[in-house]
Amino acid sequence: MKRWQIEPGKGLTQVEVDTPEPGHGQVRVRMKAASLNYRDHLQVSGFYPGGSSGSIVPLSDGAGEVSALGPGVDRVELGDRVTATTIGGWIDGEYDPSMRDQSFGFSLDGWLQEEVLLPETALVKLPAAISYEAAATFPCAGVTAWNAVVETGGAGPGDSVLALGTGGVSMFALQLAKLAGARAIVTSSSDAKLERVKSLGADDGINYAQRPDWHEVARELTGGRGVDVVVENAGLLDLSCRAARSGGTVALIGVLAQFGGDEAAQHCRVRDVFLAGARVIPIMMGNRRMLERMLRAYAQHGIEPVIDSTFEVDDAESAYAALGAAGHVGKLVVRA
Amino acid sequence: MKRWQIEPGKGLTQVEVDTPEPGHGQVRVRMKAASLNYRDHLQVSGFYPGGSSGSIVPLSDGAGEVSALGPGVDRVELGDRVTATTIGGWIDGEYDPSMRDQSFGFSLDGWLQEEVLLPETALVKLPAAISYEAAATFPCAGVTAWNAVVETGGAGPGDSVLALGTGGVSMFALQLAKLAGARAIVTSSSDAKLERVKSLGADDGINYAQRPDWHEVARELTGGRGVDVVVENAGLLDLSCRAARSGGTVALIGVLAQFGGDEAAQHCRVRDVFLAGARVIPIMMGNRRMLERMLRAYAQHGIEPVIDSTFEVDDAESAYAALGAAGHVGKLVVRA
Amino acid sequence: MKRWQIEPGKGLTQVEVDTPEPGHGQVRVRMKAASLNYRDHLQVSGFYPGGSSGSIVPLSDGAGEVSALGPGVDRVELGDRVTATTIGGWIDGEYDPSMRDQSFGFSLDGWLQEEVLLPETALVKLPAAISYEAAATFPCAGVTAWNAVVETGGAGPGDSVLALGTGGVSMFALQLAKLAGARAIVTSSSDAKLERVKSLGADDGINYAQRPDWHEVARELTGGRGVDVVVENAGLLDLSCRAARSGGTVALIGVLAQFGGDEAAQHCRVRDVFLAGARVIPIMMGNRRMLERMLRAYAQHGIEPVIDSTFEVDDAESAYAALGAAGHVGKLVVRA
Amino acid sequence: MKRWQIEPGKGLTQVEVDTPEPGHGQVRVRMKAASLNYRDHLQVSGFYPGGSSGSIVPLSDGAGEVSALGPGVDRVELGDRVTATTIGGWIDGEYDPSMRDQSFGFSLDGWLQEEVLLPETALVKLPAAISYEAAATFPCAGVTAWNAVVETGGAGPGDSVLALGTGGVSMFALQLAKLAGARAIVTSSSDAKLERVKSLGADDGINYAQRPDWHEVARELTGGRGVDVVVENAGLLDLSCRAARSGGTVALIGVLAQFGGDEAAQHCRVRDVFLAGARVIPIMMGNRRMLERMLRAYAQHGIEPVIDSTFEVDDAESAYAALGAAGHVGKLVVRA
Question: What pLDDT, in 10s, does the model give residues C119-173?
């Protein structure tokens, strides 16, 4: 079978390997679709720390059909349509740093291969209404947004949600804000992208290139009260706090806080954090229960995640190129 | 000015009184609309305990225009459109039993009069999008449903909410479930009422006269998982628990638990409560912060509460008669 | 090796079997101590439903030394001192009814054998300060009390905790209330047992045989406010609610709610539940994170669980007899 | 009667004024004790923004005896021993920025006068076991620590609490950590002060002058897991985050975040906040319900707050001088 690997210093390569047999408690899944996240760009560019030191099969997010069962498996059956959490052992409750080495696509081989071995505890069955392509976008970006907006932020009817930028997490945050009855505000430096997000349901768009005081604009849109939930995806923590209401939530998404923007943007004024009075809560993606809840929500409402483009898996390099070019709105997907 | 009073043993009477002047911290409000709740039927029938021992102006829920300000008032201005909490001192946080004697329409004079004196701390300004008639339905039934579905139940996208019957609280629960992205299931003994609630947005209706196992039907509608939030408004606690999912919420609404149904229905099997694994949480209406959030949600979404009929205030007796006849779906409102 | 089994209709018998080898992800533990719970009395008496239909090795709670590792195990090492959750797959977060068939001693073989096979995910290492006998009392009764008093009840400094009776869960609830800075109130029908619980740290004892209005006595002890957390272990839900404060917690422990007391006690008046205003929350034991937190707390404070008597494992029948006689205060332990 | 005032540019002065009469809903309290907080030093030095622009009676914290009742008051009686919240209208629930202008000693006259006028809603009766001097230390520093450690941090048995420095809030955090069954770790640059805090119950002290990596030392003291609750009182947010466990709480106390330390310390690396995985939550003192709970806890346990020195009110300037000298451990109190 075909497998794509990232080797330190060598980028993405394709190899042929034997199809693996699932061990005890493992399930083999025929990959039907997988999606890319910003950290996959960092990984292939060599900037993502903490992962495997050797070669690794990338992509933490995918979906497929169960093609073989290891001994002792009883959560799924042959032919089941499934996806999986991005962190194998995180079923429910709190994130634990010891889970870091169970991360598919980084410490463990991920979805960019024809057949994937996964522990059965990581798997979630797909509702009939959810396609493979849609499901493949949920585990990292979708569940991160679900955790931020619904579980940690607790956004509900009449609340407001501010998403920074138009990347994958932001587009899920927009959709989830609307599903939860909240108002969705999105920022971008492109008026064209702002038009696009409004067509996707955003109540308001703010061009932060034209309005460097976008945090004040967001606050005014809430009648001066401040935004209930900010999905902080841009490494601009103090400005995000100033947009938030007292007692609100700034959900701190990791990748850009770690790597994006220039160094100055990586610091924040503690005074702004204090005076804003909002809770700052780091979001480490999410657990299996959250993935299950999110799939149920999308299936009930019959909506689709925002997919910018879909590539054939043999053309995975083009997907990586599009990711690096950063012109997309929503997710980039490969399918088999 | 005109005032309506309930005197023990004498029912509702109308009297003429001098228009009162607001004292320190008080506001006079010209009543524009007021609404009736089931407990108003109990009160006028002499069955509602714990209220004033003398005559009292009934109705806990209303809205109007500020017509006079007492000394020291700074939360509102003349001409402001306002409503008020049903319990004067409950601003935020937990209910405290000492608040019981601050209940408008029961321990303190309520809204069934041309001009009402209220403490400024009880008032909430109306968003422009909210009419007086709509606002008048929120303080008791609306906020009770908000507390049950949104704050205590935490219903969100993909969750399910079961409302028992088609009274005022149930119709708000239905609307709030939909606003929050959840699935709404409603029970009734009337197919005509079930048609009506479906036209109002309910995903499913269950005729409990035809299906005495309605709790099993509700559970099946959720794929066997159980309902996330049951708005228990019928004095059927053990059956409600059996409809709920493990870890879900049964929001126990008070009036019928206290007075409705026959005596057998007033007991429940503790075993059923335990085995269901759902939390049973009594709902004592709600506080001012909840009322503010709810008004914001209805204003944002531009929806109207379900009003069955509106009566002129001089015909308030007809509103009470309709309440007693129990054929309505949604709220009964009087307007001035 | 020796193993004790319960066979339907035949009670407890001892057999000799081969020492089992751990499979993938499994660990073999040499049992050093195990403890009995009231439900073990029900099981051996044939009254406990939902368990294995064939013979089963009883006891959900134990501790021992790791004696063999199956393939793929990395959470423990040979020689580690460990205990285990009572429900194998419940790591963190919410209880899920599908976990019911992972219950050691009921659906899966438990601790009453010389060597026990357990999934590595169920194991927790013992702090050095915790003995095997102490650890063996924690998984069911201890963690149930921890869940009720600390996590669900949130008891803190200045709060009050009421434990009904002097069984294992109640004695843990007493100790945890004191550790958390709360006041501990315990009921019993025996003045001698009340003296004993006071010597164990209880602030107040109530003889419910002399004071059938024990719920009123408890309320008076809190200055009329009501108890913050009631550990409802006696099938007396409505009286427990009447002892609780508005907004407090009645933690509903399962076994007696299901099987204890006479039939009348198995029903409760919904009106009392509503008017009390306390949350009623069923407690399904607890998860691995809770067990870890509890072990850390006992180790930090250097306290011992309340153990009534310790029996040699070859005399396990005497432990069962003591359990049935119901004269104990605290836990009954067997050791190897 | 005597009154002390702070006038912009003139520091503290004493004046004679008529004893005021309480208006509607107001209570006059004969001051028996009052306490100083670090922000009182800032205020008298002219650095505290947002307060009254004219002269003001300082001190937000005090206790005394009810000496006169205004019309409509029913929460207290003549002769009652009382204290008051620092923010008049904050009864329960969330802080709201509109409450800022209800702050005694800053926007409204405070406790440094012989007789104080207060709204009855701000008052809390003292348990018999609580002295005036003790009560006078609770409203700001005590309730801030209570909010941080008990309510927001949720510290319980076996958890760990890290308090930075030996000021008033830190000493309360130490006491509350111990009351709640947690381990208390305190930092200081003085070994003598560390000895003192250990004699007050601290489990561990860290000299941050000798150990600039105090956050690593704190983490090691918890076995590498990280501290559950950090009371961040030193403007060192990123180091505090690095001391905290994943999922733990960094309670961000305001005054030093706003004014203390040098400018460099006022910024933090967002990366550290994200990677730590702890929630950062600003603490705006606390509400009346928290003050009541805290008084109940201290009364139950019979412990005293840590008071460094007590001054006669006529010598209030010495108390301010001691505050500025910063050599104290615990609170500075004036009494009448």
Answer: 999 999 999 999 999 999 999 999 999 999 999 999 999 999 999 999 999 999 9
Interchain contact B156–C (C-beta under 8 A) = no
Q: What are phi and psi of A188, to 5 degrees?
A: -160, 160
Does the structure show a pLDDT above 70 at D247?
yes
Query: Same structural domain for residues D150 and D131?
Result: no
Residues forming a β-bridge with C124? C83
Domain match, A116 and A207 both:
no
* A75/A166 same-domain check: no
Q: At what angle do helices A38-45 and A316-325 cross, to 10 degrees?
A: 100
Which residue is closest to B94 within chain C, CA to CA?
Answer: C247
Q: C270 vs chain B: nearest CA distance in angstroms?
A: 5
B280 touches chain C (CB under 8 A): yes
The span from the CA of A189 to the CA of A198, in Å, is 14
* DSSP assigned state of D235: S
Residues of C in contact with A89 (CB under 8 A): 91
Please check whether residues D149 and D192 belong to one and the same domain.
yes
Query: Residue C312: helix, strand or coil by DSSP?
Result: strand
Chain A: residue whose CA lies nearest to D273? A282
* CB burial readout C27-49, b (16+ within 10 A) else e: bbbbbbbbbbbbbbbbbbeeebe
* φ, ψ for residue A229, nearest 5 deg: -135, 120
The answer as to whether D288 is a domain residue is no
Residue A116 lies in a domain: yes
Neighbouring chains of A at 3+ CB pairs under 8 Å are B, C, D
Q: Do C273 and B257 touch (CB under 8 A)?
A: yes
CA D280-A106-D219 angle, to 5 degrees, is 35
Q: Give DSSP secondary structure letters for D253-297.
A: EHHHHHHSS-GGGGEEEHHHHHHH--EEEEE----HHHHHHHHHH
Judging contacts by C-beta atoms under 8 Å, the chain B residues touching residue A157 are 150, 176, 179-180, 293, 297, 300-301
Residues D159 and D234 in one domain: yes
Which chain A positions have a beta carbon within 8 Å of C91's beta carbon?
A: 89, 91-93
Q: How far apart are CA B88 and CA B96, in angstroms?
A: 12
Q: Are residues D235 and D165 in the same domain?
A: yes
Q: Is A19 on the interface with D (CB under 8 A)?
A: no
CATH number, domain containing residue B226: 3.40.50.720
Residue A231 domain boundaries: 142-283
Confidence of residue B71 (pLDDT cuts 50, 70, 90): very high
pLDDT in tens, D57-90: 999 999 999 999 999 999 999 999 999 999 998 9
Q: Is there a single domain that holds both residue C103 and residue C213? A: no
Interface residue A183 vs chain B (CB under 8 A): yes
E strand spans, chain D? 2-7, 11-16, 26-36, 61-69, 81-84, 115-119, 123-125, 160-164, 183-188, 204-207, 227-232, 244-253, 267-269, 279-283, 307-312, 331-335
Look up the CATH number of the domain holding residue A64: 3.90.180.10
Whether residue A255 has pLDDT greater than 70: no
Quick check: C247 and B273 CB within 8 A?
Answer: no
Residues shown for chain B: 336
Q: Is C149 on the interface with D (CB under 8 A)?
A: no
Separation between Cα atoms, residue C306 and residue B300, nearest integer Å: 57
Cβ distance of D237 and A96 shorter than 8 Å: no
- pLDDT for position D45: 85
Which DSSP state fits B189?
Answer: S
Is pLDDT of A265 > 70? no
- Of C257, C277, C284, nearest to B282 by CB-CB distance is C277
In a domain, D295, yes or no: no
What pLDDT digit, counting tens, does each position of C200-246 carry?
999 999 999 999 999 999 999 999 999 999 999 888 899 999 999 99
| Residues D150 and D279 reside in one and the same domain | yes
Count of structural domains within chain D? 2
Chain center to CA of B296: 17
